[in-house]
Model the fold of this input.
Amino acid sequence: MRCVIARYPFDLTRIGVLESMKGVKPEAVTGASVTIGRRRYPVKQVGRVLTGQDPRDFSAGEVTRAMTRLGFTCHDAPGAAPVDAGVTGPDALRTASALLGGPGPVAV
Done:
């Protein structure tokens, strides 16, 4: 499949990507990532290996689009821990105040 990354055309195949990434140790994932085989790689690392270009020359979105079109699973950047949505109303205020060390809500 023909892909354009950093204004340069590349002919990429699923098998070619698998072969290129074989034996490459994944870097720490801090942003968008892609699962190739059983490993999860940062998309910038994959782009660097596949194109030979400096990661500053292309965006994560360009590589993500190419990997998605080839059938690989792409992941967004890891987010913050989810907030407990089960506590609502006055209990939520008491819980928040208690966590912050405050006295709690004041009755008016």
Summary: The chain has a mean pLDDT of 84. The two ends are 67 Å apart (CA to CA).
